[in-house]
Structures are given as C-alpha cells and as structure tokens.
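Lab notebook page, bench 4
Experiment: in silico fold of construct C2
Operator: M.H.
Input chain length: 379 residues
Purpose: comparison with the prior construct
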Amino acid sequence: MKIRLIVLALIVCAAGTASSQQTQSPAAVAPAAAPTPALPGIGPFPGEEKHLKNIRQLTFGGQNAEAYFSPDGLRLIFQSTRANLKCDQIFTMFLDGSDQQMVSTGKGRTTCAYFLKPSLLNLPLHRVPQRILYSSTHLGSPDCPPRPDYSQGYVWPIYPTYDIFTANDDGSDVQQLTDTPGYDAEATLSKDGRKIVFTSMRMGDLDIYSMDSDGKNVKRLTHEIGYDGGPFFSPDGEWIVYRANHPHGAKETAQYRQLLQENLVRPTTLELWLMRADGTAKRHITELNAASFAPSFFPDGQRVIFSTNYASDPTQGTMGNFELYSIDIKGTHLERITFSLGFDGFPMFSPNGLHLVWASNRNAKAPHETNIFIADWVP
C-alpha cells in the first residue's frame, strides 16, 4: 500500500499534502544541481531500454513530474515539490536542466502546465515571449489543499478549487480562463495553439471539454458516467487520447457517485480511449485491466506512448511499478519501453520527435524522489 500511495501523488494531477503553503519567489527556491552525464540503463534490466539513448537527468531531488516541451522544443515546463515548497508549483527549464525558474504564484497547489504557442515576433527563439497554461487552487486558498482520507482505500482527490490560468512565462500577468464551480484541470493544447482540452466537473461528472485558447466556446466532449481525463491532442489536432474509468452496473455507479460527492475517485483500473476532437467516434485502445494513464501521441500520430502498471505483480507487492509502453491507435502492437523498477510516467516527445522526456524514480537518492529525464529516441 505504501508504494501505491507514493505513486498516487504522481499519477493524478491533484494529489498533495495538507501542510501550509508559503509564498515563494523563484529566487527563494534552491537551484537544482548541475545535469549529470548520460546515464546507463538504470534498474533491474539494464540494456533493455533499446528505444532510449543518452539518458540525462534534469532535476535532482524532490518530486518532479509532468514535463512538457515548448513549441520550439527548447524548454520544458513541469511541476515540482522541492526545497521549502509544501506542494507542487510550476517551473520551467532548458533541455539541459539549466535555468530552473518557478513561474506559478507560489500559492495553493498547481498542476498540468503547458506552453501556449509563442508570439511570432522577430526575436531569437530563446527570447520569444510565451505564455503558459496551468491549473491552480490559489484562488480558493493560499495554503495547500488537504490530502484525501485514505481510510476509504486507494483514492484520488479532485480538488474543487482548481481553475485554469494563463500567465507570461516569467509568471507575470496571471489571467483566469475558467471560473465555474468545481474541478477544472488537466489542460493541454493543440499543436496549432487554437484549442485547449481539459477535464472538468462543471456538470456534476468528470468529463472532457474543449475550449478556445482564450477560454471561449467551451464544448463538452464526453458524457459517459465515470472519470474521463488526462486528454491529449494528436499532432494534427483531429484526435484526442485520454484515460477513462467507467463504472459497470448499479453498485459500481453508486459507489462512484458517492465518492465524487466527496471530491474523490478510485482509479483502480484506467483504460485509454480515443475520440475525434469533436467528441465523436469514441473507442478504447487498451484493455489491460490495469491503471494506464498519461497518454500522448508519437509525432506520426499513429501510436500512443503512456504509463501503466500492467506488468506489475500484486503477489510480489509491485503494484507501484509503472513503466512506459507504446501502442498503436488501433489498439495493437503493445510494446514495453522502460525497464526500471518503480515509477516511469508522463512521457512526451519533442516537437521534432528526436527526444523523449518523462518522470522516473530511477537514480533516486531519497525515498519518494522523482525526477525528470530526457533521452534520445531510437525508433
């Protein structure tokens, strides 16, 4: 159970601690150590990670996750609990791990950050003004929201004070995009920068919605009872991949609704689904009977990379062993990518398809430590 609860804080965007949050400026946060040289295969199966070459560790210490590339492929935005921070805040850095800066408010809990498409100005790429997208609870309270009641078993918190915001990439000019009651989070952006897809409880269930990048023209895309979340656009913007847990039968549905009234979900099993960007043509692409999540597309749009505990052995106490896998959009050709005991999740390809970034427990120097890694992708 301990391993599963550790992974809980990584899988769901909304997990956190109950400690008070102190406002921090970027200068108040201890800088990360310098990047290390390329790492060999780390874990019980060195050499098996044939698709990953020149693995580099970008963060050192704390809990770091959900690193996503900027449109120009030069920077990463991610969430981190480190130093004096009591729960996740949003940071940016370059691909070598340098210039790590906190760009969220330092209040509440934040999650699921993404770069918006940059302004087309005649400036060097590293100076192109950009805005960022993230979710935060800071309008509800400057403190970290409380942890869920684990006496009810393995549950995720769905904090109702989450709303979606944009800001300049230095953290200034914070603007609110959503203001409906209930959870609004898990937002990502289409490649052309025009559409945001996100998860919301505004209609009483956890469903996926889309909206314009300025927050207008909100459209509900899923209507099935159950948790639909973690959406991600295909490179051409025509499809959305997401995770889902739909209860079966009256008993499971009643249990789901009861937990949802307490702003909780129990995601024992999550499968990956695919739908068109308008919410039509839904179909599942995994039937692994496992906790599969954090899907994103390969650059060709024909395959999906994701994290799952499909290979975990409950008899050996390894249910917290999450690895990266790939599968095509027809739901065939499942392939394991990582072989490192512990957690590997939140994978994303660089815009040019040459690099993969993800979060992992590998090379951890302390319990619960999760860091950001980047590697050259070997087709």
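Observations: Residues 297 and 304 are 4 Å apart (CA to CA). Confidence is low (pLDDT under 50) at residues 1-9, 14-44.
Next step: discuss at group meeting.
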